[in-house]
Amino acid sequence: MKRLWAAAAAIAALLSASPPIGAHEVDHAIEAGEALVVRLEYASGGPFAYESYEVFRPGESTPFQVGRTDALGRISFLPDADGDWRVRAFSEDGHGTDFRIPAAAASLSAAQPPGSSGRAPSVTLGIGIILGLFGALALLRARRR
User: Fold this and answer.
1) pLDDT (0 to 100) of residue 128
2) Which of 77, 76, 71 is nearest to 46 (CA)?
3) DSSP state, 133?
4) DSSP label at 120?
5) Which pLDDT value is given to residue 125?
6) DSSP symbols for 2-51
7) 3-class SS at 142?
8) How many CA atoms lie within 13 A of 51 on its CB side?
């Protein structure tokens, strides 16, 4: 009976030491490509920083991308279609611009697929450890009889 408790304690220790599998985990993908970067400035030369923008695919009226410019007044996006992309940027006080950029679809040169965080090997390893411990426990009980 002491061996059974020792095996149960060992299993509990291994399970508590394993890394948690997050139910709310968010995977990510890193893609390298040729992004278009647009830098916007006020007439005075200062950056058009933290202002709203919209980017539209050629011939579409629904924005492809929306957001705010960064601290240097930049917008970056990866066009996925050839043609003239429309960029519209505007501030709450009435400043803004609306122009078109001719662009070819960017070719992605490298990619890391989503879900490559190493979760599947960890789960497989955990299941293997649990099955191994139960196998060892079964051998101990068989020897005892």
Assistant:
1) 78
2) 71
3) H
4) H
5) 74
6) HHHHHHHHHHHHHHHHSPP--TT-----EEE---EEEE-B-TTS-B-TT-
7) helix
8) 22
Q: Cα(69)–Cα(140) distance, rounded to whole angstroms? A: 66
| Domain spans, the chain | 2-10+33-113+120-144
Residue with tokens 């505007």: 90
What pTM did the predictor assign? Answer: 0.55
Topology (CATH level 3) of domain 2-10+33-113+120-144: Immunoglobulin-like (2.60.40)
Return phi, psi of residue 108, to 5°.
-80, 125
Token pair, residue 26, equals 């968010």
Per-residue confidence (pLDDT) for residue 49, from 0 to 100: 95
pLDDT digits over 91-133, tens only?
A: 998 889 999 999 876 543 334 444 444 556 666 777 778 878 8
Residue 6: CA count within 13 A, CB half-sphere:
7
